[in-house]
Amino acid sequence: MTQAETELQCNQAELHCDQAGACVVIPVFNNARTVGGVVRGALEHASMVLVCDDGSTDGSGEEARKAGGVVLHHPTNRGKGAALRTLLEEANRRGFRYAISIDADGQHLPADLPVLAKRAGENLGALVIGSRNLLAAGAPPSSEFGRKFSNFWVWLESGWRIDDTQCGYRAYPLPETLQLATSRRRYDFEAEVLLRSAWAGLALLSVPVRVVYPADRVTHFRLFVDNVRIVLVNTLACLRLLLPVPLPLSKRLRRIPHRPGLSLFALRRWAWFGGEGPLFRLLAASAGILASTGGSTEDLVLVSLACALTGLGAFPALVASYGMRSLTRSGLPAFASAAMVAGAMLGLGLFEARRRRIPGAPERWTGQSRGGLFGHWFFLQLTRFFGVRPAYLVVYPVSLYFLFAASAARNASRQFLDRALGQTHGLGRLVRTYRHFLSFARTMVDRALLATRGKDVFRCEEIGLDYIRASAAEGRGAILLTAHLGNWDLAAGLLDGQVAEKLTIVAFRGERERLAKFLEKNLHHSPQIIEVGTGPLASLEMVHALRDGGVLAVQGDRPIDKNIVKIPFLGRDAPFPVGPFMLAAVTGAPVIATFSIQVAPASYRFLAQPPMRVAFTNGQDREVQLRTWAQSYVGKLEQLAREHPYQWFNFYDFWDSQPGGPLK
């Protein structure tokens, strides 16, 4: 990289921090050897670096000042949480929108500051948390276990699945964070602020960051004492969630959306407040009206308990019952009182339904697949202990649950099936969506089956896989253009020989851990996984992998950046990525479209199209050339989508969704 390119990259990084309105904050306690380097590195990406010297005795504050940081002092050591609180208040006083915290011991790389600043600038008000690859950094297994343990408790208590709850590399939204009633002053502050942010309605977002663990790193985390403090935070949070009264957990700053999964937070919310929308509110009102006619406290308690268990919400039923009794006591006839209560609750439900989504505003889609870690773990254990047949039977009630609980996926399924099969209404549309969900659930069973029983239980018909083997043998690289049609995860797990050894997979942010474990178990080695959405470095990694002779698996049906073309798909223009074809034109690697179709339980047909070699022609419009190449792939994809509509697994607004962040 030339000096001009380096300077340009630095200027762009500074611009990202400035656009986010972010400064850098560093709490330090006796890290004089490393804090100066961290401050200097941070100043390459931010115009202001604030440092809180938390009672250091080794001159850490002076080293930070010499390096260019603005140093605040605590006369005695108050703890990391107290130092962060001081820094956040000072950053807010200086007018910054965000404060990005970085550790003073050198484990976090200042070069990742633009990544956090950019994500924060795109999601104002969100708390952005770095996600470390501990295994790649050589951290001990105990650290990975501790992180997973902490991730579980934060999910249980907030409903948010965060990749790394223990990472201190974070972008704090200042006005919102300072309104949270945090009380912890040491390392437990970082756990408490996550929970209170989630309870207040703030989004918790993860971005990949790098981490290093020098042998001489100085850490002040006390294994026993600080872990006990963090456990205490989680224990008190669980007790608050289990209290039999609907007291607010935190000051509400934003609306809290319903999140998937049976977390304790979701169950509490479901029991007390129930589902949103006119149907839920009208049914809760009806239950409350019936309870009020009985007149006894026992009737009211039983109805409230029934509403809590069925998801109608105990609190709406209690409100409806109280309203009904108040109106009838005031002399209003029972029928009129019931009509007023039902009308008020119906109006609330209509307001909630309207508030869910502004009409005509396409959602920003993150690229992550449906089917969380719990779903994969559940089917894994089911196939391991009970076999194939019970697993295939369980998908029926599970799919029925998601048919009513996953409204966004249900709407996306209806939209796609109407285009692929023609429009239908009423019960026929509901049955088609149920079949769609069943098909997806069966693919999750097959993934678990591959992990627990191995490749021998599958019947596979291979068509064109010699194209892939021949390209891998040439050593010039190849691009496998996959799609969310059928079961592409399973196809990767069934690869063997030279193709498996050279396989490199491009995955969306947040899917790295699941893919790595799944493929390492089934390929008997850990393939390289490149995360997209992390900046231009991902594109460079792809180019290097291809030039090293790698077989690069890229999803061809999901936009990952602004580099897209609109191509007719099932009667309407849809966004498709052109990045794979740009890579092919730059590196000379062939593009091979691949598909994996389930033809029966544990039986698949793998299709690979003949290799397509592309190169830009001078004098011709590049966008036109990219469109032509992409159209050939989309044509085959549309053909298979019409032939196997229930194996299309893009459960989001495929035609109107906005891609994630730009990736040049």
Low-confidence stretches: 1-15, 358-373, 659-664
The total count of strands amounts to 16
The DSSP helix count reads 25
- Report how far apart the termini are: 17 Å
Question: What is the overall shape?
Answer: globular
Strand order of the largest sheet: 3-2-1-4-6-5-7
Biggest pleated-sheet summary: 7 strands, mixed
Radius of gyration: 27 Å
Mean pLDDT: 81
Describe what is shown at a glance:
The protein has 664 residues and is of the alpha/beta class. It contains 25 helices and 16 strands.
Describe the structure.
There is one protein chain. It is built from 25 helices and 16 strands. The protein is α/β, with parallel strands linked by helices and 664 residues long. The strands form 3 sheets. The chain has a 7-stranded mixed sheet, sandwiched between helices. Helix 11 runs antiparallel to helix 12 and helix 11 (278-294) packs antiparallel against helix 14 (334-356). It is globular, with a radius of gyration of 27 Å. Mean pLDDT is 81; it is low at 1-15, 358-373 and 659-664.
Show the helix and strand layout.
Elements: H1 3-20, E1 22-28, H2 32-43, E2 49-54, H3 60-66, E3 70-74, H4 80-93, E4 98-101, H5 113-122, E5 127-132, H6 141-158, E6 170-173, H7 174-177, H8 188-199, E7 204-209, H9 223-242, H10 264-273, H11 278-294, H12 297-310, H13 314-329, H14 334-356, H15 373-386, H16 388-405, H17 407-421, H18 427-453, E8 459-463, H19 465-474, E9 478-482, H20 488-493, H21 497-502, E10 503-508, H22 512-523, E11 528-532, H23 536-547, E12 551-555, E13 564-569, E14 572-577, H24 579-587, E15 591-600, E16 603-608, H25 622-643
Parallel strand pairs: 1-2, 1-4, 2-3, 5-7, 8-16, 9-12, 9-15, 10-11, 10-12
Antiparallel strand pairs: 4-6, 5-6, 13-14, 15-16
Helix pairs in contact: 1-5, 2-3, 6-9, 8-9, 10-12, 11-12, 11-13, 11-14, 12-13, 13-14, 15-16, 15-18, 16-18, 17-18
